[in-house]
């Protein structure tokens, strides 16, 4: 059994390639768990009912996913704010080999108003960096109470802001994106069609009904040769008909005619 976490010991060097990092947002009704799992491209996010056994199983599942991806997890690191469940959970996970870092609040503001934030910062001068969420009141309060402090946002909120902004842009341009997708598909088909070599085709002859019998036979023979040449190159029947400007049923009839002639040719050779 692993020893309980001793906070008096110096921290271990952080290795992001073998450390599963999880953060927990706790409330009385649920735990929201986000993690960075080495070797796994996605950023898992799981909502649980407050249950330490379910939390431990979740860490084990993510560890298995990393192992399946070829990464061995040597350390599980968990961070969350201290609250009703904070300290006893750290002890419970610590004896099971999970390293916990509990954020201990130094104060608790009575509300989320900008004036309250500004008053607290003025009463505690020397603050240089303030991490905050997306609440505008916090930004206003920090500027008023500690104007020289640098305001930073954690990666989760940055990604959330970026995701919300991107989703809004895609929603506003949904119709344009669909039209662009159709245009791109059509352009790709045109390119693939143009890339295939097309044999030169002779100008369309005069209608067969206007030609003498011998000439009509020559026209049919020429059309027959054109169809079979394109068919021999693997062209589909519809494309042959479209290229030669004939009825779409004519190329299949030509091919059936050739098949019929070949069968009778073999039959005659067998009789001889």
Which terms summarize this structure?
disordered C terminus; two-stranded parallel sheet; 272 residues; five-stranded mixed beta sheet; 50% helix
Describe this structure as you would to a colleague:
The chain is an alpha/beta fold. It is built from nine helices and seven strands. The strands form two sheets. The chain has a five-stranded mixed beta sheet with strand order 3-2-1-4-5, with helices on one face. It has a two-stranded parallel ribbon with strand order 6-7. Strand 2 and strand 3 form a beta hairpin. Helix 3 (114-123) packs parallel to helix 4. It is elongated and about 105 Å long.
Helices and strands in order:
Elements: E1 19-26, E2 31-36, E3 45-48, H1 52-68, E4 75-81, H2 86-94, E5 99-103, H3 114-123, E6 129-131, H4 136-145, E7 150-152, H5 155-172, H6 174-195, H7 213-232, H8 237-244, H9 250-271
Parallel strand pairs: 1-4, 4-5, 6-7
Antiparallel strand pairs: 1-2, 2-3
Strand order, largest beta sheet: 3-2-1-4-5
Query: Spans with pLDDT under 50 lasting ≥5 residues?
Result: 4-10, 264-272
End-to-end distance, in Å?
94 Å
The level of helicity is 40-55%
The coarse silhouette is: elongated
How do the helices and strands follow one another from N- to C-terminus? EEEHEHEHEHEHHHHH
What is the subunit arrangement here? single chain
How many strands? 7
Q: Report the biggest beta sheet as strand number plus sense, adding barrel if it closes.
A: 5 strands, mixed
How large, in whole angstroms, is the Cα Rg?
A: 37 Å
What value does the average pLDDT take? 76
Number of helices: 9
Specify the structural class.
alpha/beta
Proportion of residues in β-strands? 5-15%
